[in-house]
Design brief:
There is one protein chain. The relative contact order is 0.15. This protein has two domains: 34-77 and 125-268, Cytochrome Bc1 Complex, Chain D, domain 2; 86-121, no CATH class. The protein has helices at 2-32, 54-66, 89-97, 129-134, 147-150, 159-166, 171-181, 229-244, 248-277; strands spanning 100-103, 112-115, 197-198, 207-208. Helix 2 (54-66) packs across helix 8. It contains nine helices and four strands, in the order H-H-H-E-E-H-H-H-H-E-E-H-H. The protein is mainly alpha-helical and 281 residues long. The protein is globular, with a radius of gyration of 25 Å.
Length: 281
């Protein structure tokens, strides 16, 4: 019996040591890149009652159209989805008509190009990943449809524990904003390959193939918002969050309703239990 207890204790100690070793290795790898952690931004859609700012989403869409769309696709977003941003059906149809998409085959069996309709998805800027890579220093630009959910920096222990209670889920937008505003001169502490650009917020290395895409005054806003790199980055990050999670507001509303129902149900169950067992206490 005692041998069994000692054996079990040794197994537990071994598992604990293995767990600590893996945690340390993970922390070491996570600490290497990015060099700097993104700073948490103040987003309108943050928290359990957060909602999208449609004005900001429209500005972000403008930045995407005029800057990002030259290299980055938005394959999972249809033009009709833009109505969620506050555009009318007529405005959406007009926006779609500015693009061309491939259709067909026609009666002769050939594919052809036509003006896009609201039911179409945004066309990709390149015909295939190989063409995209050849046009961008050997690195194909990622699709932006889910980038705000796919890119986030590991926050590590114990921060991620607190995130459960604060409901922090804006790691993607925070990362995108930090990356777009984080370009600068290499301090000479890292090896920067030729043709790449130093950015301490990049999640994979000290530099990336993409040059700084936005600068002050590059995009004209019609609502009087500041035309700065920081504002552009903030707006396009919000737009990409919407592209990745267009039903965020409905999800939060449904979740809140479910929580109210659970609390009411728990109260009814407790009162029912007290009533049924009251004669036995």
């Amino acid at each position: 019996m005692r041998k069994g207890i000692f054996a079990m204790r040794n197994v537990l100690h071994g598992l604990a040591a293995l767990g600590l070793g893996l945690a340390a290795a993970t922390s070491a790898n996570a600490a290497e890149y990015p060099i700097k952690k993104p700073v948490e931004q103040d987003w309108s859609f943050a928290g359990p009652f957060g909602t999208y700012d449609k004005g900001q989403l429209q500005r972000g869409f403008k930045v995407y159209r005029e800057v990002c769309s030259a290299c980055h696709s938005l394959n999972l977003v249809a033009f009709r989805n833009l109505e969620d941003l506050g555009y009318s059906e007529e405005q959406v149809a007009a926006i779609a008509a500015e693009y061309e998409v491939q259709d067909g085959p026609d009666d002769a069996g050939d594919m052809f190009m036509r003006a896009a309709k609201p039911s179409d998805h945004f066309p990709a800027p390149f015909a295939n990943p190989e063409q995209a890579a050849a046009s961008n220093n050997g690195a194909a630009p990622p699709d932006f449809s889910l980038i705000a959910k796919a890119r986030a920096v590991e926050r590590g222990f114990p921060t991620f524990v607190f995130d459960v209670f604060t409901q922090y889920a804006e790691g993607g937008p925070d990362y995108i904003h930090a990356l777009l505003t984080g370009y600068g001169e290499d301090p000479g502490e890292h090896e920067i390959p030729e043709g790449t650009h130093y950015n301490p917020y990049f999640i994979s290395s000290a530099s990336l193939a993409m040059a700084q895409p936005i600068t002050d005054g590059q995009v004209t806003y019609e609502d009087g918002s500041p035309e700065t790199t920081d504002q552009y980055a903030r707006d396009v990050s919000a737009f990409l969050m919407w592209a990745a999670e267009p039903h965020l507001e409905a999800r939060k509303s449904t979740g809140f309703t479910v929580m109210i129902f659970i609390f009411l149900l728990a109260g009814l169950v407790y009162l029912t239990k007290r009533k049924i067992w009251s004669d036995l206490h």
